[in-house]
Write a structure and sequence with these properties.
39% of the residues lie in helices and 4% in strands. The chain has 100 residues and is mainly alpha-helical. The protein has a domain of 40 residues. The protein has a two-stranded antiparallel ribbon with strand order 1-2. Helix 1 crosses helix 2.
Length: 100
């Protein structure tokens, strides 16, 4: 398969991705993108209609436990080890100049 992306097509892809590419980068990336497209085309040729599409090569099973209500800490217990508490909540330093 001979795709041969032009520098203009690669530049257009860069603009869509909001990436500014220099002339040297366009020259370097065009052949690499060609190779990627060729590999995708080869995989598409091999993919058979009788093979189910999958997101993972092995079967996956849910490993999470059942969501059951259990006893948990009270607010007072959770806050008991906190270095600073304010209005029944963890007090943390203000960041990024945010106002209260």
């Amino acid at each position: 398969m001979d795709v041969a992306l032009s520098r203009e097509e690669v530049a257009a892809l860069g603009r869509l991705a909001r990436i500014e590419l220099s002339t040297e980068e366009l020259e370097h990336l065009a052949p690499q993108l060609d190779q990627i497209l060729e590999h995708v085309a080869r995989v598409s040729e091999v993919a058979a209609a009788d093979i189910q599409p999958t997101s993972h090569p092995l079967p996956l099973s849910n490993v999470f436990r059942a969501d059951e209500v259990r006893e948990c800490l009270t607010a007072e217990q959770a806050l008991s080890g906190a270095p600073a508490v304010e209005d029944g909540r963890f007090r943390v330093p203000r960041i990024l100049g945010e106002s209260a």
